[in-house]
Amino acid sequence: MDLENELRLALRRTTAPAGFADRVLARNRRRRSSGLFWATGVAAAALIGFFTYQRYQQMAEEQAGRQAVLALRIAAEKLNYARAKVLRISTEN
Q: CA of 27: how far to CAs of 14, 34, 40, 56, in Å?
């Protein structure tokens, strides 16, 4: 057989087997539903990531607030110590 005849034979028109269209449509429906499943999963992961980041930010802000209060307390103690020392020196003279 020559190449032309082999190609003609391989590319000849044939009828589809029984149920072919139904199988193609069923496969297409499965792919669409699995695509929806993946899209839902991605959306859920994005929401979880967003809320996790929000909570992390909130915790960081709370910690910064606690650190600021501590720094103010330390500064107040140092100022009170310095004030007491100044008052002690001024009363001695």
A: 22, 11, 20, 43
Instruction: Report which DSSP code applies to 16.
Output: P
Q: What is the value of pTM for the model shown?
A: 0.49
What gap in Å lies between CA 23 and CA 19, rounded to an integer? Answer: 6
Say how far apart CA 16 and CA 7 lie, in whole Å: 19
| pLDDT digit string, tens, across residues 79-93 | 999 999 999 988 886
End-to-end CA distance of the chain: 125
* Alpha helical stretches, state H, the chain: 3-10, 20-92
Report pLDDT digits (tens) over 14-68. Answer: 888 888 888 888 887 776 666 777 888 899 999 999 999 999 999 999 999 999 9
